[in-house]
Amino acid sequence: MAVGCAGGALLTLTGRVAPVPRRIDWLAAAVMIQLRLICNLLDGMVAVATGRASRTGELYNEIPDRVSDPVTLIGAGYALGGLPVLGYLAACLELLTAYVRVMGKAAGAKQEFCGPMAKQQRMFVLTLIAIYCGLAPSSWQPLARSGAGIMAAALGLIIVGSGVTVIRRLMRIARQLEQPRE
Fold this sequence. Notes:
The protein is an all-alpha fold. The protein has one domain: CDP-alcohol phosphotransferase transmembrane (TM) domain (Four Helix Bundle (Hemerythrin (Met), subunit A), Up-down Bundle). The protein has helices at 2-13, 19-49, 55-78, 84-107, 119-135, 150-178. Helix 1 runs parallel beside helix 3 (55-78) and helix 2 (19-49) runs antiparallel to helix 3 (55-78). The radius of gyration is 18 Å and the shape is globular. The relative contact order is 0.15.
């Protein structure tokens, strides 16, 4: 959770610092986003491999995700070329995708992790944009008068993709729940 929040903070800093440290912040944010995904993957794998997976573990696995993912997306909204409103909207849709998945499980369906904009895809888009912004010349990162740039476009893609993801998950969960029980 701390690594994901650090990634969001580094994204926010890109809109507030001079160009040279900004490049470092972009690249460091990309590293933090990927490190957070690796940590998230490893904790579950270690729990299963050591026989320590539990229902309580599922709870403690979900809660940090519901903090760090929105912080990262909101940080992207405040990044250079981002728009805060898009960061907040992307965070809300991220929470909705997770909510639909968890509610489906609570209703008796298997967990749906389908996309097109599940966690891994959202974080891939942010990582790719952060690397691009960290390496590409400033002239290749145009900003509109509103301040919107490449990060705003990425957040728009995440928002649309997350909306599609919510609909797909709802439809798949509904189909599962409508099937007769054996």
